[in-house]
């Protein structure tokens, strides 16, 4: 796919979210897509490899939460993988401060390549587990928004993400069709970790059978120091 074809397709899909981008930003997305396809031949970054699917199921899906992001906010993307949703959000809103965290160093190498090639500023890729990084003072409860996509079940994901969020900030995540059940299973985690549920929004992506939901939570009190628990513990024994 050449750039003009890509530009037409991405612009068409972005109309769904009422997002208009300059050619410079469209070129950043184009470079990002091509790097993703190239690197995916060497390391496992994504099962989504067709260009149109990358545009809809990665780029557009990531940007469905863009309306919750404001200029100059500090954002943490937990378990970012190949950079979703963090890098698309950063391209569209260049004035935010974005941190990407992933536990696999090969992915961090890829993310740094993307950031350098498309010349993004105020974005850092961090090689760490969320359970470890959230214990460090410079990261704990310092973020306006923590976000994640396709990382873990909601009670587990909350323990990974909420400790990064300052009181008054938000945890915004992308979940699949079982969002209602996961919300029910997360009532204890919400209470313990200090968040309240704000809203659930169903997302129907164009030309896609994906059934996604955006879940929004507000941080209303400090998270107890014991959370997150040691690496591996949240997944083995979710808060109940």
Kindly describe this structure:
The chain is built from ten helices and seven strands. α1 packs parallel to α3 (51-63) and α2 packs antiparallel against α5 (105-117). The model has no long low-confidence stretch (mean pLDDT 94). The protein is 39% helix and 22% strand. The protein is of the alpha/beta class. The protein has helices at residues 3-14, 23-40, 51-63, 86-92, 105-117, 130-133, 154-161, 179-185, 187-193, 233-236, and strands at residues 74-78, 97-102, 123-127, 143-149, 165-175, 195-204, 211-219.
Put the structure in a nutshell:
This protein has 240 residues and is an alpha/beta fold. It has helices spanning 3-14, 23-40, 51-63, 86-92, 105-117, 130-133, 154-161, 179-185, 187-193, 233-236; strands at residues 74-78, 97-102, 123-127, 143-149, 165-175, 195-204, 211-219.
| Number of helical stretches of at least 4 residues | 10
Helix content: 25-40%
Low-confidence stretches: none
End-to-end Cα distance = 48 Å
Number of strands: 7
Strand content: 15-25%
In round numbers, the mean pLDDT is 94
Strand and helix order: HHHEHEHEHEHEHHEEH
How many whole angstroms does the radius of gyration measure?
A: 17 Å
Main-sheet strand order equals: 3-2-1-4-5-7-6
Question: Which keywords apply here?
Answer:
alpha/beta; 10 helices; 240 residues
Task: Show the helix and strand layout.
Blueprint: H1 3-14, H2 23-40, H3 51-63, E1 74-78, H4 86-92, E2 97-102, H5 105-117, E3 123-127, H6 130-133, E4 143-149, H7 154-161, E5 165-175, H8 179-185, H9 187-193, E6 195-204, E7 211-219, H10 233-236
